[in-house]
């Protein structure tokens, strides 16, 4: 079973998310959207298959990264989230919460050995 298929997103806390977004827009041309910036791409082996990597700011007091106390969180794309979470549990990896399903995919969370919360995302087919 292939586990991670790519980087799904980078999320970080900041004192003023809007000001951060404006700075990145002005100096690096990163255009903010409703859920952050979407960097779209196509798979090399299957150019008909599109994907995206998300870059997003969060308020510094967000609880979304909990139980991690770190100011960032990485999101990795996966192919079969349910199967992967089951395997990770068997391997003794700390799973945080339950799998959640939204219009844009399934999400699950784990903790790495240094207390970083890691988000796993299985995008829904377009």
What topology emerges from the helices and strands here?
Layout (H helix, E strand, L loop, with lengths): L3 E11 L2 H12 L8 E6 L7 E10 L12 E7 L2 H10 L4 E8 L2 E7 L5 E7 L3
Parallel strand pairs: 1-3, 4-7
Antiparallel strand pairs: 1-4, 2-3, 5-6, 6-7
- Sketch the topology as an H/E string, one letter per element: EHEEEHEEE
Biggest sheet strand order reads 2-3-1-4-7-6-5
For the sheet with most strands, the description reads: 7 strands, mixed
Strand content: 35-45%
Query: Residue-averaged pLDDT, rounded?
Result: 94
Radius of gyration: 15 Å
Distance N to C terminus? 22 Å
| Spans of at least 5 consecutive residues with low confidence | none
Please work out how many helical segments DSSP would assign. Answer: 2
Shape: globular
Descriptive report:
The chain is an alpha/beta fold and 126 residues long. The protein has a domain at 4-79. The protein is built from two helices and seven strands. It has helices at residues 17-28, 81-90, and strands at residues 4-14, 37-42, 50-59, 72-78, 95-102, 105-111, 117-123. β2 and β3 form a beta hairpin. The longest helix is centred in the N-terminal third of the chain and has 12 residues, at 17-28. It is globular.
How is this structure best summarized?
This protein is an alpha/beta fold.
